[in-house]
Task: inverse folding
């Protein structure tokens, strides 16, 4: 497996290309109206749509009818194992939340707290919040908000700081001083512009 820092779709595809069985491509023309999804219905299920289905690869269609030059990627997040690769973790969330009292609400829906605990066990310290919305009929959608982190070198070692814990960053020539909620201050060799590039939309001058 190629050592790739996954931060967008291109880098995700680059990583999956390096893992046997995780990505296939086709140059055969495909109609985006139903045909494309119909093809992937079989490929993504490992060649069969009858239960029990198997795990198939993600797929890239390089020749989409009526859309010259367009490419379509599908199934990038369609398996736990694949998401685990992309997050740099061992395949995540292998444990299902069972219908036991401590894990469900009055309506029989998994609680946000139990989902958060399960995800935190699989990915320690990475999940910030969970929102679990019911759509009735036993269907629900879980939205997970993951923590934004900042990687720095301070005190001669590499450190990871949760962006939510940063109070402010003060710059001085070629150094930055990162003040966090615990009261600690981390000095790192960097410019304010480089800090802004890492923090992104969370950065306010």
Result:
């Amino acid at each position: 497996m190629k050592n790739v820092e996954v931060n967008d779709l291109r880098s995700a595809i680059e990583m999956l290309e390096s893992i046997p069985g995780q990505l296939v491509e086709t140059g055969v023309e495909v109609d985006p109206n139903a045909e494309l999804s119909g093809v992937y219905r079989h490929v993504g299920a490992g060649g069969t749509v009858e239960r029990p289905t198997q795990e198939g690869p993600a797929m890239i269609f390089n020749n989409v009818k009526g859309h010259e030059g367009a490419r379509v990627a599908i199934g990038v997040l369609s398996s736990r194992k694949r998401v685990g690769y992309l997050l740099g973790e061992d395949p995540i969330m292998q444990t299902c939340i069972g219908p036991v009292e401590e894990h469900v609400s009055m309506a029989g829906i998994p609680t946000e707290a139990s989902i958060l605990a399960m995800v935190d066990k699989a990915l320690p310290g990475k999940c910030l919040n969970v929102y679990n919305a019911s759509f009735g009929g036993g269907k629900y959608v879980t939205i997970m908000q993951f923590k934004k982190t900042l990687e720095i070198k301070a005190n001669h070692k590499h450190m990871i700081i949760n962006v939510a814990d940063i109070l402010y960053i003060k710059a001085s020539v070629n150094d930055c001083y990162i003040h966090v909620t615990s009261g600690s201050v981390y000095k790192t060799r960097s410019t304010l512009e480089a800090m802004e590039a890492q923090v992104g939309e969370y950065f306010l001058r």
Remarks:
- The chain has a mean pLDDT of 76.
- The two ends are 39 Å apart (CA to CA).
- The beta strands are 23-26, 58-61, 72-74, 127-136, 139-146, 149-154, 157-162, 166-172, 175-180, 185-189.
- Residues 112-122 form the longest helix (11 residues).
